[in-house]
Amino acid sequence: MQKAQTVFDEMNGEAGDVRYPYEEYQKWLSGEDPARLRRKSSAAEAFFRRTGITFNVYGREEAAERLIPFDIIPRVISAREWARLERGIEQRVRAINAFLHDIYHRQEIIRAGRIPKELIANNNAFLPQMIGVSPPGNVYTHIVGTDLVRTGENEFYVLEDNARTPSGVSYMLENRETMLHMFPELFSQVRVRSVSDYPKNLRRSLGDCAPPACDGKPVVAVLTPGIHNSAYFEHSFLADQMGAELVEGHDLRVVNGRVAMRTTRGYDPIDVLYRRVDDDFLDPLNFNPESQLGVAGIMDVYRAGGITIANAPGTGIADDKAIYSYIPEIVEFYTGEKSILQNVPTWRCAEPDALAYVLDNLDELVVKEVHGSGGYGMLVGQAASKRELSAFRAKLKANPGNYIAQPTLALSTVPILTNKGLAPRHVDLRPFVLVSPRSVNITPGGLTRVALKAGSLVVNSSQGGGTKDTWVLEE
Amino acid sequence: MLGKTAGGLFWMFRFLERSENTARMLDAGFRIALTRSTAAENEWASVVAAAGVTDAYTAKYDQYIARNVIDFLLRDTSNSSSVWSVIEGARNNARLVRTALTREVWEATNECWITLKDLLAHPISERDLPEVLGTIRQQSALVRGALHGTMLRNDIFDFARLGTYLERADNTARILDVKYYVLLPSASFVGSSLDNVQWESILRSVSAQRAFRWLNPGEINPMGIADFIILDRRLPRSLSFCYAKIVDNLSYLEADYGLRLDCHEMAAPILQRLKESSIASIFDEGLHEFITAFIRDNMALGAQIEQDYRFIG
Questions:
Q1: Is B103 helix (H, G, I), strand (E, B) or coil?
Q2: What domain range includes position A369?
Q3: Residue numbers in B near A231 (CB within 8 A)
Q4: Do B313 and A253 make contact, defined as CB atoms within 8 angstroms?
């Protein structure tokens, strides 16, 4: 079904004419000297290095801190395109929050037979500790990063919902800063919507979810696993931008029924904890007893309304890749509307017919682990050798429930600057969504990830992908 | 402020100060080794001793020769006080306390790390040593400049300064601890030319040779040097200067937090003793005893600050 795909280039379209969102940019670009652009490109790299915008790579001593390559050609989205994406994302995020509430309370969706019971009951991402717990303001996913891909003029698909702890928002902000710094004149010619309110909105959105125990101005802190974590830069960046404390597990303890941080004057209670550690490590008393990253007893404080944890524990059930395939049903069930954004067709390998199909067509499919992320443990059939395919076939047969498969989509391309001029590369898009009891706020744009190798479809930074500034044009 | 953050600031600035001091001591040692080849081995041994890493050094090397000492003090990752180790330590602490630093201070620290990472990637030849030492001092100065120019004068600043001055006092005292004998009257009576070189070297290792000459034109004597380095409150690396600053910074914290703690009780008498002492009384009491006691008190104060302000849980 995926043979002879044509690739949609977002700048040049299918016919090779510059598409209208890029018209203004193209005007500017055609007046630029390519040598100057390449100099700017190295200047950008130096800027990132000096600022310390790096991520840590596990298990590679010599390159412990790496830069994510930044490409200076922006990815441009028109106001109209964005308006539709925005509606679709909001609908989806609202449905996911309703789903999470339901799944940890009455489980109407299972009673209605819309999703199978086993999918929840046998799922490690489902936290029994959350049954009957209502988070402050009933918000489960305070921060979401919805991964989108595009295959044509009007074809967008949601690839993943990332309802746990999506990362990358610091790159969205720093990419824009870098572009403003390097090409100030460009921004006076093209009217691009600003992204710089994100930290302020994040702070407000988290504050709006303060727990019952909070009196006065909510105290917000960011919980990081520490300076060796791959996303530490982002954790410190967000804390800094929000004016929040950046804490680690050993800074925290439960004092008088509140989670409190050790300050130079004693222990001060925290109202909202934006945690960047996984559920399993959050509380050694309630989950993994070996964890050094969390706070003993935080779940008890949480259940008693003493703290807000963002995102709520147990949200992982909603971005599990097996649940993903049911999201269109979930959207319909809770909103009564058809899903605005499409899902990528997905074969659940747990189902025998689907498994048979996947095994027969492995060389054309992308297979993912149900609980995986970051591009690890994934098979891209078209790029795999015979030996890799047969090894993967064996893994699939041994544990089919652990996998889903999707067609290899012809992801859209946007040009990057190479030594030989512009060249198209595949991209995806991660817009960032903030949810509070009052509103769903989506920053215009998001993080565009780009595969730097010609023809490659893998955009993950851990696998050598880069990023681009993402522009949403003003009306 | 988090206790951890206070501790991170304190150590970030201790480490930066240490990198600069090690560079200064190497510079002074190198000069003696160049001009007095017979004294070189002793001189390198005392540089290593003043850096407080004699045991680690002798575990690795048998002899005090320039190449090994330079490598051990500048680049060796097994030496936790080598310039590279402390610069890494300073930057790791800066990352830890990133939210407490201005962008300028963070970038200066990161730049320092990037620059020295390249500079210290390979062994340093004697030919390149002066330039490398100059760069180390300059990088540390750039961070200090950013700190002074951009940071709020609040508790964040106080903890940074406490780290700087405790480390500096420790360093100056250690130099005196290793070299006290060349300042004793019995040795100085002769006033041999080697003594002169040694005195110069002590002054050089606290960047005070020019200031001393300027204040005491035409005369250089060991008691004058000791007086200058221990008691002169105009000299920014003297023990008196450091303690005046430590007590100041602690008093700002006391006022800010409205809390007088054990560390305040401990710091005041150290400053008081320096104020009341004359260099003659110190020599009477015993220069070495005085210095040893000072180093011990200074360390104890560091530990007390750490405890009082909850650096560690």
A1: helix
A2: 345-408
A3: none
A4: yes
Confidence of residue A5 (pLDDT cuts 50, 70, 90): low
Asked if residue A88 has pLDDT above 80, the reply is yes
Contact A266 B310 (CB under 8 A): yes
Instruction: Flag if B107 and A246 touch (Cβ within 8 Å).
Output: no
The predicted-structure confidence for B175-189, as pLDDT tens digits, reads as follows: 999 988 888 876 545
B164-167 own/partner pairs: CB under 8 Å, 24+ apart: B164/B13, B164/B14, B164/B16, B164/B17, B165/B242, B165/B243, B165/B245, B165/B246, B165/B249, B166/B14, B166/B242, B166/B246, B166/B298, B166/B301, B166/B302, B166/B305, B167/B13, B167/B14, B167/B15, B167/B17, B167/B18, B167/B21
Q: Give the chain B residue whose CA is nearest to the CA of A228.
A: B92
pLDDT digits (tens, 9 = 90+) for B154-167: 999 999 999 999 99
pLDDT band, residue A3 (cuts 50/70/90): very low
ipTM: 0.87
Look at the pTM and tell me if it is higher than 0.80.
Answer: yes
Give tens-digit pLDDT for A422-442: 999 999 999 999 999 999 999
The domain that holds A395 is classified in CATH as 3.30.1490.270
Q: How far is the C-alpha of B222 from the C-alpha of B202, rounded, in Å?
A: 10
Q: Nearest CA to CA, how far is B266 from chain A (Å)?
A: 18
Question: Across the interface, which of A244, A246, A264 has its CB nearest the CB of B310?
Answer: A264
A-B CB pairs within 8 A amount to 61
Greatest mean pLDDT among A21-30, A380-389, B211-220 lies in: A21-30
Write the DSSP assignment of A83-144 as a string of letters.
HHHHHHHHHHHHHHHHHHHHHTTT-HHHHTTSS-HHHHHT-TT--GGGTT---GGG-S-SEE
- The answer to whether position A165 is within a domain reads no
Residue A8 counted as domain residue: no
The torsion defined by the Cα of B14, B19, B23 and B25, in degrees rounded to 10, comes to: 40
Mean pLDDT of A335-346: 95
Length of chain B: 313
Query: What are the sequence ranges of the domains in chain B?
Result: 1-151, 161-313
- Number of folded domains that form chain A: 1
Give a yes or no: residue A270 inside a domain. Answer: no
Q: What residues contact B73, with CB distance under 8 A and at least 6 apart?
A: B22, B25, B26, B47, B48, B51, B53, B79, B81, B82, B83
Residue A65 buriedness (CB in 10 A; 0-12 / 13-18 / 19+)? middle
Q: How close B91 gets to chain A, by Cα (Å)?
A: 11
Determine, for residues A264 and B98 on separate chains, whether the beta-carbon distance falls below 8 Å: no
